[in-house]
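Input.
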Amino acid sequence: MNTRVVVTGLGVCAPNGVGLYNFYDSLQSGASGITFHQELADLGFGCQIAGKPEISESLKESYFTPLQLKGLNSSGVVYGVMAGTDAWMDAGLGKANKDKPDWDSGIIFGTGILGIDKLRESIYLIDDNNTRRLGSNSVMQTMASGISAYLGGILGCGNQVTTNSSACATGTEGVIMGLERIRSGKAKKMLVGSCNDSGPYIWGGFDAMRILPSNYNDDPEEASRPMSATAAGFVPGSGAGALVLESLGSALDRGAKIYAEVLGGAVNSGGQRGAGSMTAPNSEAVQRCILDALSDAGIERSEVDVINGHLTATSKDAEEIKNWSEALKRSGKDFPFINSTKGMVGHCLAAAGSVECVASLLQYRAGVVFGNRNCQDIHPDILKLVDVSQIPRKTIAHRPKIIAKASFGFGDVNACIIFKEYKKR
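Output.
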């Protein structure tokens, strides 16, 4: 438990920016990646907008071999491999040689539903008695651990290579799992992250639940409105985020750059009891998760100065702010700065936590707190708890010290991670 863990690499494939530089520029300027999708309109969706990373074929070819590209029909695999490989390279790490894996490095890369387009294609082939046309990589693209398997083979990691899945909490939970493995001395480096497929077969169920905004099809960039009084539901998104976690000793030995320190974290569930349900969080569990994360990190409530919330642009945003306020025992101008990345990228589902962890950590490099898009009309219940100055509309200059990042997922599951500005002790 005395092993210090730091972040030495980041990678991202987001609707408003593929690659760190593009993603940072969009976050800094408040640029949205949410667009209208004719395919959704043709299929009769009520919500015809979404956040989807734009990937050219030439860019894809720089990450995959021709053999890997043959029959590749999983957007989640593409996003995850790109983000994970970029994070590894950003950390200054190379691929293991072909004869021996890197026994000290592992991967925990989560997902929600992987390769659904490939699965649909496979079902039709099987039903038409064309099983032989499935191709040799259909299994890898449709198994949940396919993304970690792809990355494990590309990078040559010989430690634990696995996946996790906990709905919208997946990415944040994965960071905590990687932290714990390094803390325990079982690994020196862990590539952690998450991805999510894009497309109608992922987003259709949410549209059927009528929890997506259907009145912004002509104005997609204004649709995702976290903390707003006019929030009308979350905008579906997709993509991937990735972080390289490393023991401080390993990072210092090789002279790696350090984004921040990972102090601690916590996961729990509300058990779908009390006010908690499959789709709604149990407030007591959310507050316990936040407090357990602070305890694990050895941080006092008063030390948190920036929060990146889950904040999905639904009626639950005000309740989330109340939970933060009660857990931290802070309100008004004493409340930390808080932002939501979802105003610019939508809700990237299983990829949300990892994409938002990358966004949170980029604030350390630049000495800023990113602004909140589309919340000019902050919900009145939120303004009862938080002074308007703590909800920046535009990017502001502020060097974060302690950032709390939380994600809350379907199934009443919660995850909270605590990052700290890196300083030698």
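The chain has two domains: 5-253, 264-419.
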